[in-house]
Amino acid sequence: MTGKAKPKKHTAKEIAAKIDAATTNRGGGKAGLADRLGQEKGGHAKLACPLCRTPAPDIKSMQIHHEARHPKLPFEPEKLLNLHSSTPAAEVAASTSTSKPKPGIRGSLKK
């Protein structure tokens, strides 16, 4: 003998939402990898914080991040790292570094 309750039926709105969720590209998985990395179409993250390398899509978001995470330092938009530029950030940092020798293992200056 089965229960007396009516069987649950799915509404048209719920079915449409499921179809939309299944067929819309939300940017996840391998399909959205290039979009997340910001190589082809521009991606999501255009800027990176020079202090902690946190990515952000625009200057306003980066300013909000800077005020929340680095409140004692002044916000300088010209120092932000552009992730969509043709030169990688590592090359830019290497070209602007000083000639001071970098410490080796555990802070020693030996080579």
From TrEMBL:
Superkingdom of the source species: Eukaryota
Record gene name: gb28422
Listed name of the protein: Zinc finger (C2H2 type) family protein
Polar residues bias spans: 86-100
Cellular compartment(s): Cytoplasm; Nucleus
Taxonomy of the source species: Eukaryota, Viridiplantae, Streptophyta, Embryophyta, Tracheophyta
Stored InterPro entries: MBS1/2-like
Ranges annotated as spanning the membrane: none
Species name: Eleusine coracana subsp. coracana
Keywords for the protein's UniProt record, in alphabetical order: Cytoplasm, Nucleus
GO cellular component: cytoplasm; nucleus
Region (Disordered): 18-42, 86-111
Major localization class: cytoplasm
